[in-house]
Structures are given as structure tokens and as C-alpha cells.
Amino acid sequence: MIIKISENKYKIRGTKVVMPYPPELTPAECRLVFGLQKIFDSRYIMVDVYLPKPDSKKLDDRRQAHLLAEADLAQIDCLAMDQRGIFVFESKDYVGWIYGHGDRVHWTQVSAYGKNKHQFYSPVRQNQAHVEAVKGIFGGLVPVYSVIVFGNDANLKVVTDLPECCYVGTQVNLGRILAKVEGARFSEAQMEDIWGKLEASRVRPSTIVRDEHVEEIAGRDQD
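Above: the chain's sequence. Below: its structure in C-alpha cell form.
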């Protein structure tokens, strides 16, 4: 799935998305990237992104991940950008009926015709922390949108009370959802400048940091 192009360049097979390190992607994240390529220029798609949280300690070189604890970093499934601003994606691979409210800590998955119920940490809250990390780079000068994407085997039965600039949908509806977003109209030169600042802020994660992140998310879902 991941192809090594050179010493610090990796590509997701079947895409033009290039990474500075080999990403660790779930099947849902891979499907998301393939879908986003149909909507965004591949130059403006970033996957498995680690950014310092706004309240983390400022470092001269933020890319030195071994100097940052997991608590100092926001792990973002995928970022994409066009003339309207930056889109922060959180992908979820849950199946069955999904019930969620933007102002609640947990959402509910119902499967097996109502026999199985499972609560998981609100993807709206989870992705809001990622949005804040991106906003912290630009000081509110660039529009940032939160987008939660479920697989096509999910049925969003009730999803309400979403905050402003937050969108939730399934993979098949992603194009229609994003088409509704109205925002700024940056020039190509402005987009390159914005994207360059994102790449400069990106942190190369250590294996320890990645493991801690997986454990943290698993713990949230069990609370």
C-alpha cells in the first residue's frame, strides 16, 4: 500500500499523495484519501499528520518528535485544501446505525438489528482538537472546516446540533457535502504559502508517540 520513492518520500499506492515518512493508515483512511483525490488537487492533501497543540511548549524545531509527548500533539487523519480554506478530516469505520449530537461526549453505534450497542467518543469533539491545532498555526486568518466521514456501511440515523463549520457524512456523500461549503477564495500563491506553513509545522512522529495515540483513542471509546 505504501511505496518508498526516496529516502524521505513515500507514496500511497494508486495515488499522487506524497509523505515525508511512511504513514500508518486504516482501511477507512485509505478509502478517504482515494475519495479526496477526486475532489482536491493531490498536492494539497496530507495524511497521518501530527501537529503541536496550541498550548504545547513552543520548540525551535517542532519536527523533533522525540522532544514532544503524545499529549502535546494532535494526530489528524487527513488534511486537504482548496481556495476555500483547510479541511480537517476524521474518518470512522463504524457500521450500522449511528446516533450523535454535537454537544455530547459520546455517540452510539447500533448494529445487528438493534441487538448490539456501542458508545464511542464524539468524533466532533475529537476533530475539534485537530481543528484548533490547525487554527493555532494561522491565528484565525484561514478558514478551517471540520469534516467527519463514516464508511458507506454506516447509516447516520440521527446526527444533530453540529457546531458551525462542522460537517458529518458518509464516504459516498462526501462530494455533495463539501460542495455546500462556502468560504474564502485564496489565490494559488496564497494557497502555496498556507500549505508551506502547514508542512513546516508538521511533526515527524516517533513509534512511541503513535502507540500512545492509539491507546488514548481506545481508552476514550471505552469510557
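The chain has one domain: 24-222.
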